[in-house]
Amino acid sequence: MNLYAIRAIYRFEMARTWRTLLQSIVSPVISTSLYFVVFGAAIGSHMNGIDGVSYGAFIVPGLIMLSLLTQSISNASFGIYFPKFVGTIYEILSAPVSPFEIVAGYVGAAASKSVILGLIILATARLFVPFGIEHPLWMLAFLLLTAVTFSLFGFIIGIWADNFEKLQLVPLLVVTPLTFLGGSFYSIHMLPPFWQKVTLFNPVVYLISGFRWSFYGVSDVGMGVSVGMTAVFLAICLAAVWWIFRSGYRLKA
Amino acid sequence: MPPIIIVRQLGKTYASGFQALKRIDLEIRRGEIFALLGPNGAGKTTLISIICGIVNPSEGSVLADGHDVVRDYRAARTKIGLVPQELTTDAFETVWNTVSFSRGLFGKGANPAHIEKVLRDLSLWDKRNNKLITLSGGMKRRVMIAKALSHEPQILFLDEPTAGVDVELRRDMWAMVRALRDTGVTIILTTHYIEEAEEMADRIGVIHKGELILVEDKAELMEKLGRKQLTLHLQNPLEAIPAALAGYPLQLSADCRQLVYTFDAQGEHTGIDVLLRRLGEAGIDFKDLQTRQSSLEDIFVNLLRERA
Fold first, then answer.
1. Same structural domain, B52 and B199
2. CA dihedral of residues A119, A120, A122, A128 (deg, nearest 10)
3. Of B192, B223, B254, which residue sits at a domain end?
4. Distance from CA of B21 to the nearest CA of A (A)
5. Do A5 and B82 touch (CB under 8 A)?
6. Could you tell me the CATH number of the domain that includes residue B27?
7. Among A8, A16, A94, beta carbon nearest to B53
8. Which residues of B touch A87 (CB under 8 A)?
9. Other Cβ atoms within 10 Å of B139 Cβ, number
10. In what residue span(s) does the ABC transmembrane type-2 domain sit (chain A) (predicted)?
């Protein structure tokens, strides 16, 4: 195991985060705060609570997940896309590092960054609405699992993308709609029966439901199902990454 | 001592169907400077890229210091440093950080003393805290060399190290390469400048259209390269070469207005002075003359003709 290499990649990526602090951390915090002001404080005060939770508090887990997903994907995809774009990837490819070590460095850094971000948003939300966390360990576990899974997903997108447009395409056209329709702002029980069924094909539903359960003890789908589905998505991403390195897809001619 | 690099039947066909390498065999001796000459697109970079792990071979194998570069890539790559042709650096990293990064990536623990030595040797020490984006092209080239040397490799690949580099830096680079060789590092460089190969290399390989058409000691190759031609533009056309000049390797052009004399520029006597005197005695006047060194292109053409 080339631990020095994992550390070198991890540090390199984290240094990029601190260098672009404003863009990396501050802007998601600001945009999330805006959600809280609009949906939590302004509109939320005119709405009934859902499942016994005030609307402002209800959307906290969903909003954190929203940022976690989008940030994990963008951090990880950019982290591996950029070296490909400028050509510095040659060094990674010619180094004595295994695929696992490369992924551990890049995905580890991207996931760390989004977990830090998630915690900052959590603290920010607490300033706007009062809420408690019933299962803090489960909350952290979900945070970590989601960050790692979607950083892996982002890594795959970053490898697949061969131009900047593709890099934006999947997050914009797939991930954002899935997140908004995944129950960030509502309980899926509020949907008509048909759409409740359709929505079960959306993996984000399980993430948000499980995450919300760790906060308030209420969820749209069973807790076991949430963990199971997240693990399945993680396994799919791992398999895709394994295939990428085995075949050299978009990395080696 | 066994060769430090053994290339066996190495071939590469790209997805497009382009055959970049055609079953190449090559051995690099421990501690030598080997120059790989060839025109653009000959396969130099593909060969280097396969050895360094950036491109997957289609067939054949490479051993680097006894380790297969595919199966045992970790051991093989630890021995190798690569300076690619393109100047690709991270814009916002500092010189110190990017060189330290490379060392870690190649599995070596931090060693500030070694990094300092590398940076000083390459005249980069004063720039160690500068961001890469602020450096000139020549300085970036040095940074890429520093990155390749950061993990103390035994084998160093320099892909076109002096392309687009000014004379001073080129001299520095040559001096640095020699100093490295003196410490026991084996160096493989690609170039399309003959002078560079002449200046640096112990042995020279010529690659053309994916085939290694020649591998020779420099001294022997230079004899072939040393041929020059003297062309005399005649005042009056000649019907035939006069009998008085029969002993000279002379050729008359088709329009009978040029005489071409081929000689060895490395030799003690080129014979030009005597030839010109004989021409005067024979009453042959010329209005202009020029000499031309046989180019790499000519060598290729000759080599290919010999092979055909």
1. yes
2. 170
3. B223
4. 13
5. no
6. 3.40.50.300
7. A94
8. 84, 86, 88
9. 19
10. 19-248
Asked which of B223, B247, B279 is the last residue of a domain, the reply is B223
Domains identified in chain B, total number: 2
Say how far apart CA A198 and CA A220 lie, in whole Å. Answer: 14
**Cα–Cα distance measured from residue B78 to residue A148, given in angstroms and rounded to the nearest whole number:** 29
**Greater pLDDT, A42 or A154:** A154
| B12-35 residue pLDDT tens | 999 999 999 999 999 999 999 999
B14 contacts in A (CB within 8 Å)?
253
CB contact under 8 A, A87 and B86: yes
pLDDT of residue A69: 92
Report the CATH number that the domain containing residue B255 is assigned in CATH: 3.30.70
Confidence band for B280, pLDDT divided at 50, 70 and 90? confident
Residues 2-21 (B) with a CB less than 8 A from some CB of A? 14-15
Q: Are residues B203 and B90 in the same domain?
A: yes
Per-residue pLDDT tens for A76-115?
Answer: 999 999 999 999 999 999 999 999 999 999 999 999 999 9
Enter the ipTM. 0.88
CB atoms within 10 A of CB A127: 9
Shortest Cα distance from B168 to chain A (angstroms)?
A: 26
The reply to whether B274 and B145 lie within a common domain is: no
Cβ contact B90–A95 (<8 Å): no
Closest CA to B148 of B89, B202, B92: B89
- The token pair that represents B285 in the structure block: 């006047």
Single pTM value for the model: 0.85
Decide if B105 and A252 are in contact by the 8 Å CB cutoff.
Answer: no
Contact criterion met (CB below 8 Å) for B103 and A109: no
The domains of chain A are located at: 3-42+53-247
Best mutation site among A94, A97, A102, A251 for testing chain B: the one with the most B CBs within 10 Å?
A: A94
B218 shares its domain with B237: no
Task: Please give the residue range of the domain that contains residue B21.
Answer: 5-223
CB spacing of A253 vs B55 below 8 angstroms? yes
pLDDT digit string, tens, across residues A201-245: 898 999 999 999 999 998 888 888 999 998 999 999 999 999 999
Based on the fold, state whether residues B118 and B252 are members of the same structural domain.
no
Same-domain check for residues B79 and B203: yes
Specify the residue for token string 């001619």: A253
Q: Which residue has the tokens 């939320």?
A: A44
Q: Quick one: B126 and B235 in the same domain?
A: no
